[in-house]
Amino acid sequence: MRSDLLKRLAVALPIAAYYAFSCMYDGAWRIPYLLALFAFGFVVLSDFYRLASHSETERPFKPAGFVFACVLILIFWNERLKTLPSVNGLSPVIQKISQSISVQSNLIQALVVCSIFLLAVLQFRRGTAQGAIYSIGATTLGIIYTTIPICHTALMLNLKDGVFYMWLVSWCTFMGDTAAYLAGGLWGRHKAGIFVSPNKTIEGYV
Known about the structure:
The protein is mainly alpha-helical. It is about 70% helix and about 0% strand. The chain has 9 helices and no strands. Helix 1 packs across helix 2 and helix 2 (about 30-50) runs antiparallel to helix 3. The chain is flat. The mean pLDDT is about 85.
């Protein structure tokens, strides 16, 4: 357990350092934050789609899902971009486009409708209706379950004392996950029997 814990820390600490830097750095159009969104979004969505792939007919449309996720990330990153004073130095056309794109508008709903329509077209191109509902549903659920929560960090950071709330949520998540890992490793005897995480124990969850 000790060696596994050290490996986890060796991977987690550099990621946590960059994560903290990207949340607090206000220069360079907040590109580090955008890169963090892309990196985390790609990792978690890839893992979700890997677990959701059951067969050739029941599997998510990965390329389409990644494209939609990237569009969502750019929309939410634009919310962070609006709070920068340097944005005012851009041309009026770019400022107008940036201000017109908002998560408060109907843009997200329109994107969801367009994505479902495109997924239906992609399902038609597969040449079979078998697994259509599952494939379209898994693709859409992956974005809702993974990408959108990550993107909402942009709205949290825009709040007054947003960095504090970001650290609070991150710290609670980290401590909960770490406590479950340590408790499961020290006292875990009964497997929870979950396919996604076969090593999880009931003691760790408690």
